[in-house]
Amino acid sequence: MQPKIHIIGSVGSGKSTLARKLSATLDLPYYELDNIVWRRVPEGPDIRNPDEERDRLFHGILATDGWIVEGAHRNWVQPSWERADLIVYLDTPIRKRNYRILKRFLVQKLGFEKGNYKQSFDMLAKMYRWSYNHARTDKPKLMEQLKPYGDKLVILADNTELDRVIRHVRGDKR
């Protein structure tokens, strides 16, 4: 049976990087929840999917044998927490998140890396706001919502702790 993993964290915490690494290591597909919420329009701006379409796409993923989903969303993703074998919360320090947010902005703005959305200074400001608000308001609410799933929750200080996640998936809870 293939594992089902949900990765959560603030913007810049390393969710996508960890999901890509786990996907390659475990040979599982991964899905960015932002790409389920938004219909990407290359010439922009992106269009928010109606809730019904978002939910249809999301439940289609959950119906498959094994998956990795990543995203900071918390109000509509509870079915994945219920079905997940492992929930990983990336509790990355804010200074590291801030660095990653700026680095992502620069490499995508300069065209060295393709992103899911068009980089703008307005979006950069939103990212920093989301990052700062995460610790103050989002994280406490999220931890409360995750209490029923504590037996499958792993909190990591960074996405570099890939080995710890792999051990957990394989049954070694150290």
UniProtKB/TrEMBL annotation:
InterPro entries named in the record: Cytidylate_Kinase-2, P-loop_NTPase
Chain ranges passing through the membrane: none
Domain of life: Bacteria
Name of the protein in question: DNA topology modulation protein FlaR
Organism: Paenibacillus aurantius
Upper lineage: Bacteria, Bacillati, Bacillota, Bacilli, Bacillales
